[in-house]
Design goal:
Blueprint lengths: L17 H25 L5 H47 L1 H14 L4 H11 L3 H11 L10 H26 L3 H27 L3 H25 L2
Length: 234
């Protein structure tokens, strides 16, 4: 009878996806910036309708700007990768001895014997495309980017910004008096900031309670500063 015990070893490592990173960027700014704007305007005007118009305009402009930033960042990453690939192919063609030494150095750094360094380098250098891919990943630390990354990033960040921005603005849609709307907006936004900060910190491996409190305080300070400035110059 086979009595061998099989122990499964499961490695649990955080791998934050690019989409998750985009959502965090868009949502954090979407919750904070329109919240501060609405709070500041509430200190200067009485009618919620004015704040709604200004808030919608800010959300539209902010989501486009943030989305465009994500798009340009994605395109820059692709352009940089293509540029480095072209350079590696050129070095493989014209500076083969240098690339061979760099490949051997990598294998030496991971502990292979001189004989295995020679053998592994010889094997990988037989295929130019495979060699370039190897150097891109292990010499430069670059992974081939998703060709649709730029568009996906723009949409993820832009939509997340809109979703976050609607929360502090929503009470002004239903309450005509800006001061009363602000009171509800503060409670709703701070609760959302706390929840958002908690889960963001939990995903990224930071103490979730500390992360939640930090995100909430940043949002509260931004709104308080905007409200105070508006009252000062009222």
């Amino acid at each position: 009878m086979d009595t061998h015990l099989h122990h499964e070893h499961t490695e649990s490592h955080l791998k934050s996806s690019e989409a998750l990173r985009d959502i965090v960027i868009g949502m954090s700014d979407g919750l904070t910036v329109p919240f501060a704007l609405a709070a500041g305007l509430s200190g200067a005007v009485d009618k919620s309708s004015i704040i709604v118009i200004a808030g919608i305009a800010e959300i539209a402009a902010g989501s486009i700007a943030m989305g465009l930033g994500g798009y340009l960042s994605g395109k820059t990453e692709q352009d940089h990768y293509r540029s480095e690939v072209k350079r590696e192919y050129d070095e493989v063609e014209n500076l083969r001895h240098k690339e061979i030494e760099e490949t051997k150095e990598f294998f030496a750094n991971i502990g292979l014997s001189p004989a295995l360094q020679e053998q592994a380098t010889e094997e990988i250098a037989q295929d130019k495309d495979r060699w370039v891919d190897f150097m891109m990943k292990y010499e430069l630390g670059l992974e081939k980017p998703d060709p649709k990354r730029a568009t996906k990033s723009a949409l993820n960040i832009g939509l997340s910004y809109i979703a976050g921005g609607i929360i502090p603005l929503s009470p002004y849609f239903f309450i005509a008096d800006s001061t009363q709307a602000l009171e509800i907006s503060v409670v709703a936004t701070l609760v959302c900031l706390f929840i958002f900060g908690y889960f963001k910190s939990k995903i990224t491996g930071v103490n979730p309670w500390y992360g939640a409190l930090r995100v909430t305080l940043i949002g509260a300070m931004a709104a308080a500063a905007a409200f105070g400035v508006a009252k000062l110059f009222e």
